Amino acid sequence: MAHNIQGTFVSQKINKIRWRPDPFNNSHSFLSCSWDDEQNSIKLWDFQENDELEVHPYIVTQMEHKGDTTEAIFLSPDIFVCSSSLGSVGLFKIIYNKSSEISIESATQWQNIHKFPIEVSSCTAITNYDQDIVSVGEDGRINLLTLSSESIVRSYENADSCSLKCVIFLKHNEVLTSNIRGQMKIWDLRSKSEEPSNMFVMSSDMVAPTCLTYHPTQRHLVVAGDEDGSITIWDLRKNTFPVNLLKAHDESVTEIKFHPDYPDHLFSSSMAGDIWHWSLKPKPLSSMMILPSEKDDNNIWFASDEFKNKLEVYTLMDQLHKPVNTFDVNQMKMICGCDNEAIYYIHDIKLHNPTK
Question: pLDDT category, 352, cuts 50, 70, 90?
Answer without folding.
Answer: low
